[in-house]
Structures are given as structure tokens and as C-alpha cells.
Amino acid sequence: MSIDWTARAEAFADEVLFPSADAVDRMDVVPRERLDLVAEGGWYGLSSPSSGIDMGGGRPILEAFAGGCLTTTLVWMQHLGQPPACAFGAEHLRVWLEPLASGEIRSTVAYAGLRPDAPLRACQDGDDWVLDGVAPWVSGWGLTTMIHVAARAEDDDVVWLLADAPLPGMRAEPHRLLALDASATVTLHFDGVRVGGDRLTSRFPWADWPARDAMGLRTNGSLALGLTARCLRLLGPSALDDELVRVRADLDAGDATTYPARRAAACELAVRAASALLVAEGSGAVERGRTAERLYREAALLLVFGSRPAIRSSLLAAFGAG
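Above: the chain's sequence. Below: its structure in C-alpha cell form.
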């Protein structure tokens, strides 16, 4: 009998994540026990080939999680690129696949080497790679023991490395965020951090990245859809329900050329849904610790989370500031 992963995710979000999401929002950091529950549910292996879930099948799962607790979702989703990196990389990387898929090893990711200005650099020294620079946004710091680092090599290649965390030469500078503050998001500094050459998962010319990135813009749209769906469930039936169905369908039918505008539409809808919930609940909803207040702040954060210039332009135009 096949597993209905979407139904399982919706039940997990409703029964485990959402009831305590407000409490997590007030904490300094997501409790490890909460991430243990995510691991026990098998969710760290969502992106492993053994799960049988493709990218399209993973979208409603991510949406359900985001509507349960966006803070927990952010920490967990940073891990999801690492199982396939080990599954489809060099043979010796397979040793990491099962511990990553089970959540025995929990990881995060640093994308700094993918930026055009690449503030994080990698140089080869014998069999090792040496990292210098900064990764401006790394979530789940202190909750993970591995970090998948993208850095730029001297030949303008992007190198991806599985680094233990922390390592000598790493220094974290915490951020204080509008929302998701318990995600333990930091700016991570690298000062001569040495990573073994056997931890290289992939290498490719940076010039290949923009096309790959454009095709990957759909994924984060599920966060806005999930937050919107939660707001609308709390709000009750409204015309926004049909709009959510339409925006989701538009994203699912999109491609690299349409994803930016459709991602922007999803984020703008999340802000309107959260605003409507806040208004419906009245003045008490602005008190810190209330669900509507949390969702409103989270919707605002999603306006700039994982953004790109084309998404920003579409949002500014939607707000009359383009």
C-alpha cells in the first residue's frame, strides 16, 4: 500500500506543528525535541530517492508544513538538498545518505557562493578546500552538525562542500528577524576554514547557475501558499479561497519565465490573507503572541524571503510602487 504523504503532512501540521507554533515563535530557538518529532515522522528523508516523492509531490507537503509552523519548516527545509546531493554525487558520499535521510545527522545550507558577487571563496590547498569570506544568511545554526556550503573557486566554478559544523575558523553573528526569529539564522564568517576534498559533492561553472535557479523558483512559493491556506482556514469561507486555488494552479503550471510574477502573486496573496485575518479578529489580534499577529509578520517576511529582482519588481508593481 502506497503512503499518502500529503495527508500525513497535513495531519502532522495540524496535530503537532500548529498547536505550538505560537509558543515556538516566542522562543529563542526551535527546541531540538520538536525537530526530533520531524525526524521520527520520516520527514528528513523527504528528498531522498528512497522516499519515492518527486519535486511536484513534495510541494503540497511543504505547503502543509508552512501552514503548521513556518519557523520549524524553515529549519527543516534547509536540510532537504543534502540527501540528493549525496545520493547522486560520488560513490563515497553514499555513506552520508542514510544518516541524513533519517535525521540522525541534521544539516543546513549556505548559498553564498551562488551569488553574482560571491562573498564566500574557496581555494584548493593540496587535497583540501579552504574557505574565506561570509555567508550572509544561514538558518538552523547550532541545531545542525553539517552545513552544505556553496563557495566560488578561483576559476569561477561553484563548489559544494559538506562541512562539519562548527569547524575552526567559523564564527556566527546572530540575526534578529521580524518573524521566524527562533530559526537560529546567522551570518556565518569563514576564516581559513579547511574542508577535505572528499566532502566535495559537486562542481560546475557559475555561468550555468542562473538557468538552474530560474527553474527552482517554484519551491518557495509553497511557503506563501501554506501560510495563506492557514489564514483562510482560520478566517472562514471567503472569496480568497478561490483566489488561493487559482494562484496555486498558476504556480504549478508555470515555468522559468513566469515563476517570478507568480511567486510574487502568491506572496501578495499571503499578505492580504493575513491582513484579513488580523482585521477579522479585531484589536486584540495585535497583541504579541496571538496567532493572527504571528501570521501577519510571517507573511511580511515571505515578501523578501528567497527573493529575486524580478519577484521584487512584480511585488513593487502590485503595491503601486513599481
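The chain has three domains: 5-88, 107-206, 216-318.
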